[in-house]
What does this fold into?
Amino acid sequence: MDPSLDQPARQRRGLLIVLSSPSGAGKSTIARMLLESDKDVTMSISATTRPKRPGETDDLDYHFVDDAGFDRLIAAGEFVEWAPVFGFRYGTPKAPVKAALRQGRDILFDIDWQGTQQLHSAMGEDLVRIFILPPSMQELERRLRERGTDSEQVIADRMQRAASEISHWAEYDYVLVNADMDKCLAKVQTIVAAERLKRARQVGLVTFVRDLVGPSH
It folds into this structure.
């Protein structure tokens, strides 16, 4: 059978995938593993007022802008979401997101619950929200300490913030407990695969079915 015959049914609209979790729950690691394992997923590049860190590249890691530039982007309606985080502002540019959806490409977002709420309001059914929980608060604290990069005060602040972030779990479509990184990744991959197959995302499916059964049905 010619594989091109089923092409209209396989065309689809892109997917916006949000991964949120408290710091230390494994979100960034799972995001990296998903990007490495799925060539159809690319990471959203946010604009930020945070200074560039050593090794970071402008327009690759972030779009680095000053406060005045960020204000101009807000005023022009260029963000689908933005939020203050630890004294700086982060925002998702609208144009590349809409272009990716039209082209059937999937974008991964590493944002908190505030950004997720804004993104959901702006993008609706194009968005899939996944929240990752730690197996326990004790394990979360252990993971934060294992990093060896944060002071006691920073760890205490992150633990306090974690309780607040976890309180928003019910605002997400899927909630996973990350007791094992590989198993949690497999669940994320299953969610992404299923969401790609949803009828609402199958561009051209109506035409395909009409041609399949004839115009009288």
Q: What stands out?
A: The CA atoms of residues 32 and 43 lie 9 Å apart. Residues 181-196 form the longest helix (16 residues). The two ends are 25 Å apart (CA to CA).
